Fold:
Amino acid sequence: MQSKLSNTAVSDALKAKFGAAILTSDTPYDFLTIEVEPSAMHAVISWLKKEESLDISFLTNIGGVHYPEQTDREFAIVYHLQSMSNNFRMRLKAYVSLENPEIDSIVDIYAGANWMERETFDFYGILFKGHPNLIRILNEDSMDYHPMRKEYHLEDATREDKDDRFFGR
Amino acid sequence: MNTLEKQKSKIEATVESSIETIDGDIATLNLGPTHPSTHGIFQNVLKVDGEKILSSVQTVGYIHRAFEKIAERRPYSQITPLTDRLNYCSSPINNLGWYMTVEKLIGAEMPKRVDYMRVIIMELARIADHLVCNSVIGVDAGALTGFTYLFQQREKIYELFEEVCGARLTTNLGRIGGFERDFSPEFHRKLKDFLKDFPKVFNEFDKLLSRNRIFMDRTIGAGAISAERALQYSFVGPNLRAAGVDYDVRVLNPYASYEDFDFIIPVGTQGDTYDRFQVRQEEIRQSLRIIEQAFNNLPEGDYKADIPEFFLPPKEEVYNNMEALIYHFKIVMGETPIPVGEVYHSVEGGNGELGYYLISDGGRSPYRLQFRRPCFIYYQAYPEMITGQSISDAVLTLSSMNVIAGELDA
Structure:
């Protein structure tokens, strides 16, 4: 089924409304991806939900990504949103730093964000300001690190019996 | 007032106050972590006043296996066994959804025959998933017969999976780029038998519960959720449709040629246990229709796409043909070049939109792979749905939401 909204229309509407808070706009694999200033994320998601012409009012997913090489932009917080009435999907990204991994919680906009944000906190240590109950969800409570960060290798880094150099790794 | 009367009034006062403490006393009840009615390992700490639930605190993560982390170390073809173990009631949907995500990333086009074969497998898996859920609702309401009867049919579906891939529960079915082999004549025969026998058994099961007065009294109004709240909680799949929203990934974002088939999306009105049951019942019938259409119109063609750099060549070619040997080596060692990019792909799983968010940096493993697991997202609405209900209704609500521990905890 064809989407009733176009990528450019949504991206233009966001730029007109939020101006400088919309940092970049891209469409990898024809999927609208917009980078937003972290401080404006709450307002953007809230506006997308209220704006009747867009009706992007369903939160599909929240996830984190860790890029250890990007100084001051170590963590990406990725929101997938969709509009069921317009059959349109989009992705919002905000980058936060390792020193200050904070973003406003959107639990007040979407009740379902509660566990998704807890999961992101659990695995990446991203702090969602205003979350009612930001505690670990899948990992054990006494764990003192955030396991999906790239510095935690799956295999023991001190192992010497495996040599992967020959395969360019 | 004489002594006897004094004594009497004292006793009455004691009795009265003790009745008060029984009624006003709020007890804490642990539903789970291991409890027959939870169908998996997750805990609910309930505050109850008699039978009435006042609040519930959930603990999940008992079988967390760090799939997203493990996936960051594995070549793409080796991630499929991880997806098996998400919703293990309908593993093939998870497998095929993962292949489609990778195929989207590498830009591979599938022949029509592969699409139709996939549709048959996915709809069989959906039937198996819904059979488990609906027959277990019956069990939790006290009707064990339907469960034992239907599980013979689920066994037939598992035999079909076995015929295609050799495994039953954790299937690892198919490959990136199609299937490892074509459907065998035995599969064709077994599927024909299934399509002939199943509707009769299924209708008997339907008669047992659908208009059963006791079952209706137990399930109507139990664990209801409105469409607005369901959307707030990012519900998908049968649970959302039971609340009255006709959202189905197969229709809105068709994959694997779903647009070729004629089927309807059943919706409920109340979002309660009975509606969830009925929506799943109707979806089973619609799945059967889809399988019949796909099976009768199975196009001629190859069972795999022409992507030699991702699809393992036949063994005899590996031993006799230089190119095939190189491809074989590269695939097995995980050395095939993968494009850089990020994709989100979703399929309609047994519980609704099952999404894969994949970021590739060109390496042999995904840079990041996230599973959008419908169970994990909608299970958080459970306390809201059972507050004010009785404990027995909470058990029914849980089974009708089809919360699968594997999918919940990843």
Notes: The two ends of chain B are 71 Å apart (CA to CA). Chain B has one domain: 67-391. Confidence is low (pLDDT under 50) at residues 14-22 of chain B.
